Amino acid sequence: MSAQEVFWRSTSLEEMSARQWESLCDGCALCCLHKLEDEDTKEVFYTTVVCNLLDFDTCRCTKYEERCTLVPDCVKLTPKDVDAFHWLPPSCAYRLVHEGKDLPEWHPLVSGDQATVIEAGASVLSWYEVKDNEIDEEDFVDYVIE
Q1: Which DSSP category does 144 fall into?
Q2: How many domains does the chain have?
Q3: DSSP string spanning 32-48?
Q4: Which residues span the domain enclosing 76?
Q5: Taking the chain (146 residues) in consecutive chunks of 10 residues, what is each chunk's mean pLDDT?
């Protein structure tokens, strides 16, 4: 790989271009799983409830540009937010780069193939049970991943 292809090793998240930043997303959609936060401890718990905007064929948001308007709780990740990335899954490229770690072999920037994230079982498709528009929000707690 050329230096341009491994920009995540030499460029901080804050210094990345918009194109580099977006390319770091591996398309796992694990950030599309609803999370619950303990108000006392601030601990974050993932659920198996996924956003209804998720396309299960592509593992991408069907309304990416409008997502924060359509889903007010949707978080738009930016380089300014890196200190708050503790809630992202441990396999998330944004979190890995922030922590000084390398990308996994299945990451599309490493493998050269967008399908490897799904083939490796690293996507939301291996976790979700129900879409958020199919149950009441108060029932999300019943879907917390132990």
Answers
A1: B
A2: 1
A3: GEEEEE-TTT--EEEEE
A4: 7-143
A5: 72 92 93 91 92 91 92 87 82 92 95 94 92 96 93
